[in-house]
Amino acid sequence: MNTARAETPSLRVLVASRPGLRVLAPGAALRGRDIGASTIFASRRRELAGKSVLIGARSQFVAARALIELDGLAARLVICPPDFSPGRLASVISQAEVDAIVSDAADKDFGVEREIYLCGDPVPIDEEDCFTRLASQWVLPTSGTTGAPKLVAHRLEGLLGAIRPACEPIPVWATFYDIRRYGGLQIFLRACVTGAQLLLSDARESLGDYMIRCAKADVTHISGTPSHWRQLLMSPDAELIDPKYVRLSGEIADRAILDALRAVYPRAVISHAYASTEAGVGFEVADGREGFPTALLDANGEVELRLRDGSLHVRSKRTATAYIGQGGLKLLDDEGFVDTDDVVEQKGDRCFFKGRRAGVINVGGLKVHPEEVEQVINEHSEVRMSRVSARRSPIMGDLIIAEVAPRNVATPREAGALETEILDLCRARLPRHMVPVTIRFVPAIDILASGKLARRHA
What's the total number of domains in the chain? Predict the structure, then answer.
């Protein structure tokens, strides 16, 4: 584990220089001007110096404070989502060679025995902060849903690479992401560096209650996955806010969700960003169209994009540096590019995402990306959300099936008519092997804690 000295300011120093920063949670607030002279680790802060530390707090707010305090102090910050099971936590702790755990809950099971440092209310620092400033590694798990997660190491300067100075007036941010996932961490760091306000959600808080808080705070900027946004748009709570900037990331932003957001938030800039835990923030598109301009390919700017064998490859100073605890597994190729595993198709002056290479369904030897079928289904005006998966067939291998959450289906007759219309739309737009063999109407479609659609094989 590298314990090199850092050449850039720590997050704590950056935050302390932003007196306007406010991180807000139900019943709690963190202000930039208060961060420099206090600690949540009482007299034990010194003991965490140079260690590999797991951020194991249940609360987003406590995790935020711990990240600010520990950058530059700990050699490694290991950031785990709160929904990880003890088994997955134990795997992360082993791979990242964790020495200590910081938590706000003494009873939380981390799957292994480690020294736990409980976070308390902030108290004044009664000693001179003279520790050597380390270049802390920031370690995040990939968003895989099964098996042992891969751990990805970043440097703070890389994580901050896409953040630009805030315009006036300073934004009020909200995000559906948890800050312990890459998408949420980016918004948290953006608030820290620019001195903005950020409203964090709470696990005990309903979507409606969070939207009420956002409305009272006059949120101007808000981010989430397309699935997050589809979930919100299924509720009247979407009309509680009137943002200036709406950001999508983490999944394919198709025409249906972009048009739906434009209809609800006509005054907002609707932007979709491409980023991943390994590749970092790649680019942002705000022209109202799905996909991205081909002009971004083969350009030699801060971020370089290439298409190789249909997959998007990214090289920049924002990418992660390595996998942790994965033996000889390489993150970067010999030229410094990350293979994102995202399949992209170029059509004219536009590139379109088709889906994940690992998520392909095999129908009689022909490849189907579920996202391509969902994009067509979602274009129907009576569809709120859809999920396409595979059903095993002894003859064809897999067959395509679809679950659809409709806007208004009150009777079996209405359901039958809608099913016919959706299938006709699919037949008109898709090759025969991509058309669903069945459509099942459901009241809602699950999304994971990461904000992504919960994909499964039927």
Answer: 1
